[in-house]
Amino acid sequence: MNLEFSSLVNPPYNHVDQSTTRFSGAAWFDYVHHTDVLVAGVGGIGSWLAFMISRLNPASISLIDDDVVDASNMAGQLFRANDIGRLKVDAVQDIVQYFSRYHHVNTFPRRLQADDAVPKVVMCGFDNMEARRAAYFAWKQGLEYLSDVEKAKSVFIDGRLSAETLQVFCISGDAPYYMQEYKSKWLFSDAEAESTVCSYKQTSYCANLIASMMTNLFVNWCTNHCNPLVDRSLPFMTEYAAEQMYLKTEV
């Protein structure tokens, strides 16, 4: 099934919106401007992530999630009280339009399937391994008939969050070693996933933090396609524990 995401043409550069003028000279700006992004899952990670990415002014953002906002989401997700009862994708679309003046959003209020055709940039914010696995294999199947050059223009960024700890995985489409590492070691089942205290699963500050880190990785990845003098860092795994403020990266 094809998500039928659309790459919508943004305004010409000589009419750059005031909201982007403070970073329109960045090396990555033009590349981001022509890049389509899928945010898969728009809850604790994805709601913040979609907002962060919208501020970069990409070609389009596609949102996929079948969930509805409820009162418990106010603890850690970027929703407003009047969003309760609404589809999360619709609420996030409204939020980025209002706060970022960004209108190139496609919404899919359903579950992502492993055989879906997705954009080359997939940013995963699901809270369960089954959905995460579907997102990864949907992205990976899109690489099958691409040349090595085109594979390098694909990236999968997976964020995992508990209340005060987080992990982010970043895999370029031309990195078979890390694909195998991710598949064999990190795509375990939901039953194997570490459980957390049932009443301590989300905090807004850590959800905002992981979304910022994922956006940072996306920006670094885009920059590395712009022939920088020195490539930016793209660690395979980033971990952060808020209690000790301990940050670790694995290349």
Question: Top keywords for this entry?
Answer:
17% strand; 30% helix; alpha/beta; globular; single chain; 251 residues; eight-stranded mixed sheet; 8 strands
N- to C-terminal distance:
34 Å
Helix content: 25-40%
Low-confidence stretches: 8-16
Average pLDDT figure: 90
> Rg, please?
17 Å
> Order of strands in the sheet with the most strands?
3-2-1-4-5-6-7-8
Tell me the major beta sheet.
8 strands, mixed
Number of strands: 8
* Approximate strand percentage: 15-25%
The structure class reads alpha/beta
Order of helices and strands: HEHEHEEHHEEHHEE
Instruction: Count the DSSP helices.
Output: 7
State the shape.
globular
Structure description:
The protein is α/β, with parallel strands linked by helices and 251 residues long. It has helices at 29-33, 46-54, 88-100, 129-141, 148-151, 176-186, 204-223, and strands at 36-40, 60-64, 105-108, 121-124, 155-161, 165-172, 237-241, 246-250. It has an eight-stranded mixed sheet with strand order 3-2-1-4-5-6-7-8, sandwiched between helices. Helix 3 links the parallel strand 2 and strand 3 (105-108). Helix 2 runs parallel beside helix 3 and helix 2 crosses helix 7. The radius of gyration is 17 Å and the shape is globular. The model is unreliable at 8-16 (pLDDT under 50).
